[in-house]
Design brief:
By secondary structure, the chain is mainly alpha-helical. It has one domain (about 5-420): Proton glutamate symport protein (Orthogonal Bundle). It is about 80% helix and about 0% strand. It has helices at about 5-25, 30-65, 75-105, 110-130, 140-145, 150-155, 160-175, 180-205, 205-225, 230-265, 270-285, 290-305, 305-320, 325-340, 345-360, 370-380, 390-420. Helix 1 packs parallel to helix 9 (about 205-225) and helix 10 (about 230-265) packs parallel to helix 17. The longest helix is centred in the first third of the chain and has 37 residues, at about 30-65. The chain starts with 6 loop residues before the first helix and ends in a 12-residue tail after the last helix. Bound molecules: aspartic acid. Aspartic acid (ASP) binds near residues 322 and 363.
Length: about 425
Amino acid sequence: MQWYKKLHWQIIIGLILGLAWGLISSVSGLNGFTSEYIRPIGSIFITLLKLIAVPLVLASLVVGVTNLNDTTKLSRMGGKTIALYMVTTVLAIIIGLSVVNLIQPGKALPAETQATLMESYRGNVADRGADTLEPESLMNFIVRIVPANAVESFSDNSNMLQVVFIAILLGIGLIHIPLQKGQALIEVFDSLNEVVIKIVDLIMKIAPYGVFALMAAVIVDLAGEDISRAFQLLMALGWYSVTLLLGLFLHVALVYTSLFKMFSKMSIFDFFRAIRPAILLGFSTSSSSATLPVTLERVKKNVGVDEEVASFVLPIGATINMDGTSLYQAVAAVFIAQALGMDLTFAQQLTIVLTATLASIGTAGVPGAGVIMLVIVLQAIQVPVEGIALILGVDRILDMFRTIVNVTGDAAVSVVVAHSEGKLGPLHFDEE
Ligand code: ASP
């Protein structure tokens, strides 16, 4: 396939053309045209992302939880696996929050630019009444996660945590009834999951146009008054990307390396060498689910993890463990808040830890799923969801990097679990 037919290149082209169009229309008085006819394409794209969020969370989580059925059989291994997945996810978010608070990429934008951006998104915030919301107490926040009416939860994207709650409850209910009774519903969710993933795939096909329109609209909003503001935004995006990549690198260097030091005898470099094809595939497909077969094969054949452990730990990981994605969601949420001139309180940052953990569990291992789930995180901290437009242009490329970390995290946990169960064989390097 020619390079320009690949989606990530098309998105980059969309991004560049969108920037160019935004600048051209600013200097040639076409701002009105851009706002009226091009901006809506971006809005439709964002709306589609919101539309698919509820079914995506519901299907992917119910399927994820029902897959945990085996935990009863393999409860000890299941416990270890889940604990390791949770701990690494929370550490990833803490690393993400640390780097983004330290580097503050969103602050690269001058205050007036932040104000202009906020101005263009304010309507949407006011719509939801978020302007009037005070930061709420942790207890209140927890109380609000439990819905009284499921239909109401599904009807409003800002209740996404309630959807997560319902999905987990449904999954738990399903694994506690006899299989022949639950089978039909499990199959429905399984099939819904497949369909939703396909729809995400279709939405991503129009991403180049969506990104074009969003970038053009952002530039028109900014450069409409002063063209140098457009360049400030690009600088800030550059810093955002650097911050995220640094966070991902630190997570691998600190967390996985320490895990290997503490809980296995394997060197992390040998481990990387053994799983290299899975990493490359993760990078090029941006999908940990699509990479799963290769990850399974390498982990079993080359890393030496016993079949029983690998085929239990890895599929669960591909569904619920996304260290790269959770780190990204933390960095992106804080960056967007910074770019809009919002200072996040400590409670809001704690909310990010909680919601990004849940959001990454609910993220399907397919390209672009992470940015959809970012909606949950933003809504929980009352940052305008429309701010996603700021980062969408670079999102697809960063997706490739966070997927590497997602895939690596699953494989690393499988090594630790196998080692602790005495089921780790010798490393094996073959034809490479
Ligand atoms: N592409 C990621 C994965 O498959 C999910 C995401 O969008 O963050 O692991």
